[in-house]
Amino acid sequence: MDMNMESLVYIALFAPFVGSMFAGLLFGNAPRTHLTGIVASILIFVAFLASATLAYHVATVGPVHVKMMDWITIGDLSIPFGFLVDQISVTMMVVVTLVSTIVHIYATGYMDHDKSYNRFFSYLSAFVFAMMILVMSDNFAGLFIGWEGVGVCSWLLVGFWYHKKDRPFEENPSISPSWAANEAFIMNRVADLGMLVGIFLIYWNIGSLQYDVVFEAMPNLADGILVSIAIALFIGAMGKSAQFPLHTWLTDAMEGPTPVSALIHAATMVTAGVFLVIRSNPLYSLDAVSGVSMFIAILGTFVAFYAASMALIARDIKRIVALSTLSQLGYMFAAAGLGAYWIALFHLAAHAFFKALLFLGAGNVMHAMDDELDIFKMGGLKTAMKASYWYMGIASFALAGLPFMAGFYSKDAIIETAFNEGTFIIWGMLVITAGMTAFYSFRQVFFSFHGEKRYEPLGFHPHDMYKYVLIAMAPLAILAVSFGWLMGYYKEFIYGLNESVQYEMSDHTHHLAIYLAALVVVIAIGAIFLAWKKYGGEGDKAWKRDEAFEQSFIYKLLENQYYVPKFYDEFIVKPYTITSAKFWEIDKAMVDGSVDKIGRACLKIGDTTRGMQNGNLSSYLNWMGLGALILVLVAAFSTITTESIVECLRAVAGKGE
Amino acid sequence: MYESIAFYVFAISTTILFLITVMSKNVLYAMTALAAGMVMISGFFFLLGADFLGVVQLVVYVGAVMALYAFGMMFFDATKDIKEKHQNPALVFLLGGLMALVFVVMFSAPIIGDNIKAFYPVIEGVGNAQAVGMVLFTKYLVPFEVAGLLLLVAMIAGIILAGKKMDYSLTESEAADEEMKIEPNSIEIQKGDA
Amino acid sequence: MLEIGVNHYLILSGLLFSIGFMGVLRRKNLLMLFFATEVMLNAVNIAFAAIGNYYGDLSGQMFAFFVIAVAASEVAVGLGLLILLYKKYGSLDLDVISSMKG
Fold this sequence. Notes:
The complex is a heterotrimer. By secondary structure, chain B is an all-alpha fold. Chain B has helices at residues 2-23, 27-47, 51-73, 89-108, 128-136, 141-163, 174-180, 184-193. Helices cover 70% and strands 0% of the residues of chain B. Chain C has helices at residues 6-26, 30-55, 59-89, 94-97. Chains in contact: A-B, A-C, B-C.
């Protein structure tokens, strides 16, 4: 490895950090200036260039492994600050920096009028930096640092508009950005405990946290320990990647600014869980933990279906996109659980591109509609915002998995994997979910861009985003279309890593692949057509609200997100509040009480002994005499030991004789 | 035997004399008793073989210090009994008695640890004054010099403190009163006393 | 009982010290307080001389010397101060000269 590559690693890692510090330290208190946004964007772009060069290097020469410095060295514990750039991490680096660059540029336009513009860029770049540490670290400790850094930054960014009050939603009881930020943060803490336990288990049993050492030693461990580690790490992944039952924060995190949502969903946060599982592929592909892997696949499939079902009736444009992320994460976990790690990673990358595009498009719509999110109030926006319409259309095509779009290749590969593994229930569920995905994504497109102009009576005057922002989004659109074409090259690229990441379909599946793909495509197109029928019409065919359906049980169930948030509220939040109040009482009586008592005792002693200070030297002298006497007494008693008493008695007895 | 008799004689007389010093209402009595007690204490020093210390005791304490007191007393009115208000005499005796009790109990217990070695043992074959001189001007030279300096400082301080405005009569000259910044009411008290 | 050991001296010293201590506690007249402190100093000197004798060490005597030196200095300065106080207040009674109001 030459110096050149090493410095590129540091550039890729620290450029976002420099951008964050530039915006935060130099302009933290300054009035908003475009300089921060421009500098931060350029620095992220530099990081992207460095990552892309590294990707080329990894493909042609091989992985880069650098050790920056010793970080923690206590006794036997030695955690160096090292970075590993191999096929997996470089994929993540390129995806993260590319999406982040575009999101940064987008944010310069989107956050234009926000007075905390500088603060926003400081957080946003820090978010990217944390994610870069997460993916680049060569050990679990560094990964955990990035993991927590991502958590903190997401908290800062989701709660960016912390001053907003709780407001009632038609769908949600009442949430505010600060509430959503806390929910995301606390829910992630729960999962992070699992993650920490996993890391501790690894350290106890192997004595190192370096990936290479750990994965080499793992096959020699007892099955029970391996299963415990796999479960604990996956709990961490469940929190970050918002898998059931820790998924509620993801949709509520839509309270943050839209660029943040794009970043969270496409690049810097939810993919971390999938990354962890892919990174730990030597662990999850062991026979001993096949049960856990199967569970991951089943849970992923369930979440894919579960989230897609909620998206079918959601009215909040960002919530629909968020639920689709949840659903696609389910696909990724399904693939990873079934052992097709590289397909999961490929879908992660493809998803990042079209999901970022989808979010940024949704952000354009929001921007045009004065932060209105309800798609029932939109419609016919395609005339007012042509570019956004095209972008959203392309992204939705990719998400729905129509042929020759990015999502087609990656998602289809996952569905094929499920078929290949013989897990036909998973396969069936995934096929149905693919249909649902096509339906809800186009439902949203038709609702907002086609049909009657429902916004007109409400007094909105939609206008498209700045031109440069729309141009900046183009790379995402291009990748959303074309990324899938690179699948063959990517396969070749990642096969260079190791064997456990490789996955091939059997010949049998290979023969059927074309039919399977055709089936999925037909279902998807059918679903799109259905959506068009229902929501795309104008005039007489225009969509009308179906009150009866909205009162039905199934609608209520989906609208309330299967009552999971309600369940949390009733069975976790409320009892916790009650116990906290009780403990507060105890705290007041015992901790505060004892402190108060000490204070009062001091006051009282001072009050009583104040009489000593009467200004009379004679009485001072008397007190001093008393003190001297006490000292003499102390001296006398401190010389008394059992030996001295024995000695004394012996002397007395001796005299008696 | 003689030593014992001498010890007890000295001990009893010292105790009585010092008790008079502490209890007496008359300054002259107290001072005389103190001077006499100090003479008796020098007797202990002779008994303990510290001849030189005994002489110093006589010369410095009885000779110099008591003379200083006597001269100092000339400034005060020594003819009258001293009137003191004792708020709780019982407590004073209790504390003093307790102190005495503690000491007696402590010291009457046999001394533990005979294995302590002398740092500067008594030099054989020379007189006490000689031995003291040898130790004092070798090992204790610096403290000795410091003590000399201390005495010098004390002497100068005594002269300055007591010698201020000695040529003014405290009671007769009004100018002196003003210069001394004596407040009128304090003069009242003084006159009332006289 | 007849043989005089170091303990006898120490007990005597303790008694004399207590007498001085009592004097310090009960006296209100500054001059008398000085006398009481002299008593205490002398009591300590006896202890020093006795212990020095007991151990065959001259250090005890040395300390007694220095105590005497310090006592002499103290008397010189103290008497000067007493005279000043007497000039100012016309009395040496602690109750009279107390100027701080507690």
